[in-house]
Amino acid sequence: MDRIPTSVWVDRIGRFAPGVPALVRYQPRDLPHDLIAGLSVAAVALPVGVAYAQLAGFDPVIGLYSSMLPLLAYALFGTSRQLVVGPDAATCALIAASVAPLAGADPALYLSLSAALALIARLICIAASFLRLGALADFLSNPILVGFLNGIALHIILGQIGKLFGLELSAPGIIPRGLEFVGKLGSTHLPTLAVGAATVAVLVLVPRWWSRLPTALIAIVAAASAVALFGLDAQGVAVVGSVPAGLPALRLPEIPLELIDEVLGAAAAIALISFTSTMLTARSFAAKNRYDIDVDREFTALGAANVASALSQGFAISGADSRTAMSDAVGGRTQVTGIVSAAAIALVLLVLTQPLSYVPIAALGAVLIKASLSLIDLPALRRFWLLDKKEFGLSLVATLGVVWVGAIDAILICVALALLRFVKSAARPRVELLGLLKGNAGFHATDFDPAVRTTPGLVLWRFNSALVFFNANYFKREAVKAMNREGPDLKWFVLDFLPLGRLDLTGLDAVQDVREELHRRGAELVIAGRDGEIVRELDRLGLPRNLLGDRYFPTLRQALRAYRTEVVIGDAIE
Predict the structure, then answer these.
(1) In 131-189, alpha helices (H)
(2) Angle between helix 142-165 and 89-103 (nearest 10)
(3) Is 530 helix (H, G, I), strand (E, B) or coil?
């Protein structure tokens, strides 16, 4: 028996793990670039992982656990050469909002539920990949996603601002917490405020002079050094405290069966938001560097990364835009960047956990606030306002949803908004009365330019959507309006069939109703475009060829010529 070449085995494995062929065929010339990029990413991931763990309600070490194995899993299963996965502000906020009410004051249950959340989110992602649901990345429109992330940013900022001032804030909701913060300002702990303010200054000023330096790491190191040197923890400045050394033990999370329904709903919400934001990041860098990604396989990759996080006692992760941007800025070329970063974080866990105990909570709060401010996209809101006031309104509603009902329930609002937006655009598509514009090729809508001219007795009409049950009545109403505008002189009603794409039975009945109405008016329904497809399908079904229209033409231009020849000139001869 002939042996199968190694390259064939590698390609076969690549069908399930797209990163394997790239790693097997790794080019040594890329290694220096990936080493530098990996260390740079680790420099950003270390302070951010600790800060995001705090945001999600975990010990700092859990954030580092969530920043290692997921990178290895994505390197094997991902299709992006550059995407870095790890703890993410929006995902961590969702974890805290969903798990805290279920776990109560039990930290062990909190950790177990969070790991279970990551595992279930993974299973949802894997199932979505098999069902080819990668299009869900486009489900939440950009205005809705921008609005949601703006709301999450406000939620995080008001959740962390008390830590900069040394205040305990416990009021639920964004507005009540804001009022509580104002009411407690008089109790500000000045040493804590000094540490927080100094950290903010480093985060703001350093990038202005040295944009490629790991600003968050510099700020955290400076703050921890100040605590250690001046004994600020003895003066009441809260610090991270002891961080256990060593790598995480691998184990399956446990989940009480009575909580499975609540965790399942939260996992689905996290899977949707995480995948959508991950695809925004992955697509942006793929477009910038001119390579392709497989959206459906990315579902599997994100799922595998979440399983790796759950097995290593971590929490749900997502695509990390700031760490991906760092990798791109310093020249990272492949997923070896992520592997190097994971190795560097593992080394810190083995030999450098002692310095982490001096990191002040105020400094972590400053890092989170700075990261949250990057989520707020005011230029996008301005663009929505200028281009489409309705889209601007959708974005604001998504933001207000987070403000008023919280992050998890706000996802339901965002999904409802997306559904309503989709149904409205599909049920009420744009309809166009077409004509000719002097000096311009093709056909143009009459509302495009007042100079567009139509032909007397002829309606060239376009319905820009598939014709199905939920827009069939709208199709008939708009067609009758177009007939009425032409009046008793109407001879031909030409329907452009190209945009229709698909008809269901209700849509088929709607076209027949329009044809019958035209006959009552002494006019004909003429079909332009897809003439061959339509005739072949009618013949296959054994239906009469005039079921949909009285005449068929390949294009609108040929229909117009035929009308001029058969009707206009014919009437003139008579």
Answers:
(1) 142-165, 174-183
(2) 70
(3) coil
Nearest to 144 by CA among 517, 515, 529, 413: 413
The pairing of beta strand 551-553 with beta strand 524-528: parallel
Q: How many CB atoms lie within 10 A of CB 264?
A: 17
Q: How far is CA 345 from CA 50, 170, 219, 387, 509, in A?
A: 11, 33, 18, 45, 64
Positive or negative torsion for Cα 503, 507, 511, 512: positive
Single-letter amino acid, residue 291: Y
Tokens at residue 344, please? 């560097």
pLDDT, one tens digit per residue, over 283-305 is: 778 877 788 888 878 888 888 89
CB half-sphere exposure, 191, CA atoms < 13 A: 14
**What SS3 state is found at 334?**
coil
- φ, ψ (nearest 5 deg) of residue 381: -60, -40
CA 113 to mean position of chain CA atoms: 24
**Res. 405: pLDDT tops 50:** yes
The encoded tokens of residue 120 equal 């279930």
Provide the β-strand partners of residue 431: 463
The answer to whether the CB of 284 falls within 8 A of the CB of 53 is no
What is residue 436's three-state secondary structure? strand
Cβ atoms of 134 and 299 closer than 8 Å: yes
Q: How confident is the model at residue 407 (pLDDT cuts 50, 70, 90)?
A: low
Q: Cα–Cα distance between 83 and 79 in angstroms, integer?
A: 9
The amino acid present at 282, given as its one-letter code, is A
Q: Which residue has the tokens 């310095």?
A: 355
For 463, phi then psi, to 5°, come to -115, 110
- Distance in angstroms (rounded) separating the CA atoms of residues 234 and 11: 59
Distance, C-alpha 476 to centroid of its chain = 36
Q: What percent of the chain has pLDDT over 90?
A: 18
What's residue 480's pLDDT? 94
Q: Quick one: pLDDT at residue 136?
A: 63
